[in-house]
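User: I'll paste a sequence; please echo it back and then give the predicted structure.

Assistant: Echoing your sequence first, then the prediction.
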Amino acid sequence: MAYNRNNQNYARLKLALSLSDAQVSLLMNDAGAHISKSKANAWARGRASGRVVAMTDDQFDLFCSGLIVWCQQPQPAAAEGGADANANV
């Protein structure tokens, strides 16, 4: 199977949320799928690379499930001097 819509949506979400391959691997493992960092990277490669791995519907569903849990966890506070530091000025 070749690059598909799941790969496109996965790559968009990964980029938008600045997820590393290691983070994707962890959240997939938390969702019940043992995925390596290299497989997480292969899903996001473009067609032109010739080394893309198709993401199945089940894998994309597990990614989304893991992503929901990850997004609900408390995130680290913004670095001092960032946009939030000036919010009340």
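The CA atoms of residues 42 and 52 lie 5 Å apart. The two ends are 54 Å apart (CA to CA).
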